[in-house]
Amino acid sequence: MSLGFALVAVLVVAFAAGWAGYLHARRLRTAGRMHSLPIYHGAYVALWGAIPALLLLALWAPIQSRMVDAAVLSSPEGRALPAFEMQRESILSEAREIADGEREQGFNPQSSTLAPRIREAQSRYSLIGGAVALFAALGAAGLAYRRSAPQFRARTGVERWLLIVLLAASLIAILTTLGILLSLMFESLRFFGLYPLHAFMFGLEWSPQTAIRADQAGSSGAFGAIPLLWGTFFIGAIIAMVVAVPLGLMSAIYLTQYANPRVRTWLKPILEILAGVPTVVYGYFAALTVAPVVRDFGLRIGVSSASSESALAAGLVMGIMIIPFISSMADDSMAAVPQAMRDGSLAMGATKSETIRRVLLPAALPGVVGGVLLAVSRAIGETMIVVMAAGLAANLTLNPFASVTTVTVQIVQLLTGDQEFDSAKTLAAFALGLTLFLITFLLNLIALQVVRRYREQYE
Amino acid sequence: MSSKAATRWTDGSMNKKLGRRYASERRFRLLGLAAVSISVLFLAFLLYNMSAKGLGGFVRYEAALPIDFAKSNLFLDPATLRGPGAEQTVASADLETAISQAATATYGQVAAEMFGDGAVDALTRDIVRNPDILKDKPILWLPVGSKVDIAAKHDSDDASENLVNLLKSKHALRERFNTQFLTASDSTDPSSVGVWGALKGTFLTILVTIILAFPIGVLSAVYLEEFAPRNRWTDAIEVSINNLAAVPSIIFGLLGLAVFLNFMNLPRSAPLVGGMTLALMTMPVIVIAGRNAIKTVPPSIRDAALGVGASKMQVVFHHVLPLALPGILTGTIIGMARALGETAPLLMIGMRAFIAAPPTGITSPATVLPVQIFLWSDEVDRGFVEKTSAAIIVLLLFMLVMNGLAIYLRNRFERRW
Lengths: 459, 417
Known about the structure:
The structure holds two protein chains of two kinds. Chain A is mostly helical. Chain A is about 75% helix and about 0% strand. Chain A has a two-stranded antiparallel sheet. In chain A, helix 1 (about 5-30) runs antiparallel to helix 2 (about 40-75) and helix 8 (about 225-260) packs across helix 11 (about 310-335). The longest helix of chain A has about 40 residues, at about 155-195. Chain B has a three-stranded antiparallel β-sheet with strand order 2-1-3. The mean pLDDT of chain B is about 85. Chain B has 16 helices and three strands. Chain B is extended and about 90 Å long. Chain B is mainly alpha-helical. Chains A and B meet through helix 6, helix 8, helix 9, helix 10 and helix 11 of A and helix 1, helix 8, helix 9, helix 10 and helix 11 of B.
């Protein structure tokens, strides 16, 4: 018996018990007035049958895999495995795949002899777990069934369960946030055990190649994050915003103040399409079409170091991607400015553009600034465009035609190359991830604060 | 006013000033129009660029090849090729050499390498379908290799161009719709790649995402909007949902790597893990859309239901939720469309491996369409350029369909109260 089978069995038992409860309650109804509808009696029994048993199974599954591993390693075949952990792990995972029937044979002959042991242990432990869960299902459903009576408040019981399910669903958001924080911090702490924190935060050199041999040249591996942060800031907060802020702001002004409604209903969705294009498409476009043009332009105006993977190409395309975001944020904050202010200005004889520049924009400025901050946080976390168009060289440069690298590029690079677990290289990616998370978190916090305070002013 | 000059209309200075102000008004308006136009033009150029490069990927060239099976040293007996296992038997024969010899015999030494893996696959299918051709000297139309394909579509090196001209002069080259691109999977040979494996991986991944994210998202939206007491816990949930919606997607990839792969030991590169990671990413979007949709249901509906004796739970599940569903679905589809185009978090959990067979289930190794595009864009072979763009066209079509569906739902079912 596998745990999957136990799961199905529990569900079948719960459903059958629920059906029995429903029929029982319908028979009761002929006797007189009831508190709850028969369907609630059925649901009450079914919920009691399913939820505790499913929780048991969910708790048992990880325990079982630990126990299977322990049992297999203590068997004679398991003790013959090499002591080196990575080798043993790879043989074990091969054997697991054979035991699950996913493959016929492993690269390693030992995995084939191990597979029957795994299957044995699995069936033994899942029999225990499955039986316990099944008994729990039967017992709980039986108890619930026996409570069924005309005046029994089955609906209240069902609703209590539903409320618990609702609460559990909304706790997942907290769990995800905690999961992100804990996993990033845990791995980052291990990284800072290998590499000092201040050298990471203030180091000016980034070259993550760790040594294969100790005497190798440049083997030390430098993890100074400043060049990466600069690259991220340069592309996401400077170049992209130079493109996106004027274009987005002017688009919003034109669409809300000048364009007639028919044009607006067409243009707005078109702008939104820009936001919906997958970033990998932008990346491909930036690398294949924009980057060569930018490089040739750079060479023509006399920048001899113009690279085919330039900060400018990535930043330009990223800026275009951000336009709809800025435009809709600006749209919102201009709509929040009271009509009376606009009317007052127009009544004094100001032209439309004078009203927009002197009254509307200053009044909407905090909202616009908040929107720009949110846009910066989005641009900083953007990955695919920079991975495909920005390059890998960690340069501290102001030259937009040179190649720079960003935090996200390096995370991808560190985790998708030939990776060894637990090396400083892999752990550095998590430290970078933590840095990125904290920066975007702070930006969002400030931006939301700015936007909220500004909203309160006019409400 | 400090200067009386401002109100003097007679000498024309006011008119001049007014003219300047109106000119600046027109300039400002033009500037706005230019800003919108730049965005629209960019989008148009992007789409034109992709289709110009990618439409070629849906077309392939086939060349006529007379094969004399009697002369080739293929030891295949038509009699043994009836029934199951025929495909393996044919695949084990050296078709590549046979094709190369036949091509050399017909078109000369230059044609020795004009056919690629795609031709071998096509010939295998032909033989399995009708083993009797092994006794004949049939003329078969086989897809040409990548080099000749490029030469037929664009400019290429002289040898390939000459070969194309030779084939054209003999009327031995034809253009066909590339069905293989929609039915095959990844390959090292650009002329025989396809998007089916990646599409199937995408479907499985999105399926897992929707099964997890939709119920959880809707239920937590219901809880937060209808049941949650105002306290510190609710505030914490709200803050974390708003924050999660703005966390960079790559961070979710790191979470998936650390928790699902390293801690829970789930299989690498599997749609299961990809779907779970994307579900965590999409859930906040659904929660926010769901809360907004639930908010728009007027309180009179709730009051009426409560008035006739429904419980709070019945009010929500029998009346509020069905009325809010169109709005929730619109938000869900938009969130799913975003998940569909997501690449970075899936790179983190290993969905970037070279996988030549479509996935068989949610735990078998797979890749998804955006990652496939990323992988192909990294290839040096020139034949991959048009395949990458063609895959982008397929991806954009999917996005268009999903967004269109969302807009349709919004217009058709969403009620203004």
